[in-house]
Amino acid sequence: MVSRRNLIKLLGFSYLLFLSLPYKILYSATKKIINPNLSKVQKDIMFNEGTERPFTSDLLKENRKGFYHCANCGAKLFSSTAKFDSGTGWPSFSEALPGAFKTKIDYSYGMKRVEYHCANCGAHHGHVFLDGPSATGKRFCNNGLCLIFKPEN
Ligand SMILES: [Zn+2]
């Protein structure tokens, strides 16, 4: 026999699950692995919201003109003109190309941060902070492994 009190608890819990379900379905529907050659680490960052170790990305030293694309779907995300050295150990940009990303609030690790993901394939790329040095005031802190740089010409 389920007591009345437990029944109410059970219903309340199911109701919460039910409420979060449409969001989960909608969010996972936008995530899709397109590039079959993604490494295990890349998949962990892009689809499990992992983070690469700081100061490990080759892109930190990249200073050529060109564009940064999504490593999963190839969408164009950043121009080299927006790149700057933030000293954080992750490739950083003052602005993204229009419509490149969608954002959501991330409450993990006891912090409130704005997470952004590729608008085209849903892959997680990084977090955006409001302490950037440029006119936009924004700092897109991007995992280098999520990006592919294509130089101009
Ligand atoms: Zn993408």
Please describe the structure with a list of short key phrases separated by commas or semicolons.
single chain, 153 residues, alpha+beta, Metal Binding Protein, Guanine Nucleotide Exchange Factor, Chain A, six-stranded antiparallel β-sheet, three-stranded antiparallel β-sheet, 9 strands, elongated, binds zinc ion
Task: Provide structural commentary.
Strands 3-4-8-7-6-5 form a six-stranded antiparallel sheet. The protein has a three-stranded antiparallel sheet with strand order 2-1-9, with no helix packed on it. 24% of the residues lie in helices and 26% in strands. It has 153 residues and is an alpha+beta fold. It binds zinc ion (ZN). Zinc ion binds next to loops.
Order of helices and strands: HHEEEEEEEEE
Ligand set: zinc ion
What is the CATH-assigned architecture of the largest domain? Answer: Beta Complex
What share of the residues does DSSP label as strand, in percent? 25-35%
State the end-to-end CA separation. Answer: 73 Å
CATH T-level topology of the largest domain: Metal Binding Protein, Guanine Nucleotide Exchange Factor, Chain A
Q: Which overall shape is indicated by the principal axes computed on the Cα atoms?
A: elongated
Sheet of most strands? 6 strands, antiparallel
Query: Order of strands across the widest beta sheet?
Result: 3-4-8-7-6-5
CATH class bucket of the largest domain:
Mainly Beta
* CATH H-level superfamily of the largest domain: Peptide methionine sulfoxide reductase
What is the count of β-strands? 9
Radius of gyration using CA atoms only: 19 Å
Rounded mean pLDDT is 90
